[in-house]
């Protein structure tokens, strides 16, 4: 995969990327040896393990169990303690963790993992192939009521080949299985925790279930106060041992309060940051602001069962009528980029298209060609948060220029999702989509495949394209990576040209930290990796 997410540090005037946490040796001539040794000693002293890292997060976690988690705050905390077979790095590349290697079958219905030996959980139990099977069987069992059960529904069976080899069998060809297993919800927990739940249905995995193999282990969770993890001394990976003694996560809902706590040194890292607050921090000398493309795509969805959107000229006119650069400047304070595909650049398989340039004259010509120069009335649904309402109101103003009279209706997010899932009276809506698997199939299929219309999934616009359906199946059924990527590129070109959405923007992922904090990075999903954090 190409390196996608580039993190820049602002505030100290440098171009420093996110610290890798790795020491770099020095080589020099004889007369330079003393100086190099002094510098090496100084560097070693700086990177000694120690200290408590304090992290301000926007909300209380919902669970310590990755199989029952759908929010980023919980995933950030869990990632210090829990590991899966694979994971995404800062560039959204898949890297091995508890698996040393994996291989697809020729028909892409099976993926076989060779597991790492000598790994133990925080409670001393051994990690092996049986552990993988028990975890995946447990999360897939709908009787256990776990939030991520449906995420693993593609699995038909998990077979233990030997102590350190396991095969996952899909119910149909699925070349995206590795991406699913790199997702944070595919982390492994001790089989002892699963056994406790099976023996006692009242055992609370959400509170007690964070027994993983990671560099930190769970200490305590005090409601509305903090979650504390501490360094695990017997961590299996000597190269990536924790470099701080502990991490304390503090839920602070108000963004301005988080910012002030960072300024005063009450916390070392804050995530996330609203764009307005990010602009305030950008030039502060004692703070680093990190930005990079997220995996979120904002769009205006439209219902194809409404005759107003039958003509492609109307759909393209709407795309040309909205000044996306202006939207990014006014609503996002400049922290974003124009969406040039239905998926964002960090998503594996992304292929950018030529954007719909802002051109009101051309948009009006297209409306006239469709016989709708006088426009029509429309209703746009949105979540009732400040950001979403601001986007909807911006779209309302812009579409008025081509005589589309938009009425904005804001709803609580759960209510809005229920309305879209019901598929009744839907017209336009402000959507945001990010594929948790980090790859193109889950980024595209749920929104555009014909079998994903309400109530099945996200295709709330009832967009039907049989040619596209066949391409989805072709891409997913081949284990040939290059071939699959070529098909996904064609899919994105077809979708962008057909304009089933008004493609808006991709917001930046933003975090801030003190300049004395090193070794962290932010994933495009917004989750923050703190495992190699250092304080010096």
From TrEMBL:
Residues 93-451 form the Solute-binding protein family domain. Residues 65-75 have a biased composition (Polar residues). InterPro entries: Peptide/Ni-bd, SBP_5, SBP_5_dom. It comes from the Bacteria. Pfam families: SBP_bac_5 (PF00496). One of its GO terms (cellular component) is ATP-binding cassette (ABC) transporter complex. Residues 13-22, 31-45 have a biased composition (Acidic residues). GO terms for molecular function: peptide transmembrane transporter activity. GO terms for biological process: peptide transport. Residues 1-75 are annotated as: Disordered. Keywords: Signal, Transport. Belongs to the bacterial solute-binding protein 5 family. This is Glutathione ABC transporter substrate-binding protein. It comes from Alteribacter lacisalsi.
């Amino acid at each position: 995969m190409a390196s996608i997410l580039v993190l820049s540090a602002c505030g100290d005037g440098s171009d420093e990327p996110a610290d890798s946490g790795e020491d770099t040796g020095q080589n020099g001539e004889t007369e330079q040896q003393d100086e190099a040794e002094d510098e090496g000693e100084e560097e070693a002293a700086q990177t000694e393990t120690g200290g408590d890292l304090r992290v301000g997060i926007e909300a209380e976690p919902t669970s310590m169990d990755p199989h029952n988690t759908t929010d980023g705050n919980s995933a950030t905390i869990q990632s210090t303690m829990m590991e899966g077979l694979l994971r995404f790095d800062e560039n959204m590349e898949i890297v091995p963790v508890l698996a040393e290697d994996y291989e697809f079958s020729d028909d892409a219905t099976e993926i076989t993992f060779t597991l790492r030996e000598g790994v133990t959980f925080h409670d001393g139990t051994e990690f092996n192939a049986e552990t993988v099977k028990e975890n995946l069987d447990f999360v897939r069992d709908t009787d256990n009521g776990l939030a991520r059960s449906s995420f693993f529904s593609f699995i038909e069976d998990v077979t233990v080949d030997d102590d350190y080899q396991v095969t996952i069998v899909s119910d149909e060809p699925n070349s995206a299985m590795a991406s699913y297993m790199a997702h944070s919800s595919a982390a492994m927990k001790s089989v002892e925790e699963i056994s406790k739940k099976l023996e006692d249905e009242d055992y609370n995995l959400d509170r007690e279930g964070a027994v993983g193999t990671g560099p930190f282990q769970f200490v305590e969770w005090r409601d509305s106060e903090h979650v504390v993890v501490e360094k695990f001394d017997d961590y299996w990976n000597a190269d990536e041992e924790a470099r701080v003694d502990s991490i304390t996560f503090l839920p602070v809902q108000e963004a301005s309060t988080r910012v002030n706590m960072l300024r005063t040194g009450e916390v070392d890292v804050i995530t996330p940051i609203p764009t307005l607050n990010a602009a305030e921090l950008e030039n502060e000398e004692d703070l680093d602001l990190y930005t990079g493309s997220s995996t979120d795509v904002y769009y205006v969805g439209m219902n194809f069962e409404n005759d107003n959107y039958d003509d492609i000229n109307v759909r393209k006119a709407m795309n040309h009528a909205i000044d996306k650069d202006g939207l990014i400047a006014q609503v996002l304070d400049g922290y974003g980029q124009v969406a040039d595909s239905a998926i964002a650049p960090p998503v594996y398989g992304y292929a950018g298209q030529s954007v719909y340039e802002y051109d009101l004259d051309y948009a009006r010509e297209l409306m006239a060609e469709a016989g709708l120069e006088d426009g029509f009335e429309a209703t746009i649904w949105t979540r009732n948060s400040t950001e979403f309402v601001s986007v909807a109101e911006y779209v309302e103003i812009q579409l008025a220029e081509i005589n589309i009279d938009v009425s904005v209706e804001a709803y609580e997010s759960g209510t809005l999702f229920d309305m879209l899932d019901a598929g009744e009276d839907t017209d336009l809506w402000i959507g945001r989509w990010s594929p948790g698997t980090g790859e193109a199939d889950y980024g595209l299929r749920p929104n555009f495949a014909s079998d994903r219309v309400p109530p099945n999934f996200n295709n709330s616009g009832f967009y039907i394209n049989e040619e596209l359906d066949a391409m989805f199946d072709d891409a997913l059924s081949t284990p040939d990576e290059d071939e699959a990527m070529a098909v996904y590129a064609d899919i994105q070109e077809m979708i962008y040209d057909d304009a089933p959405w008004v493609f808006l923007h991709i917001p930046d992922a933003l975090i801030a930290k003190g300049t004395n904090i090193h070794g962290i990075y932010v994933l495009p999903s917004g989750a923050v990796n703190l495992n190699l954090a250092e304080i010096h």
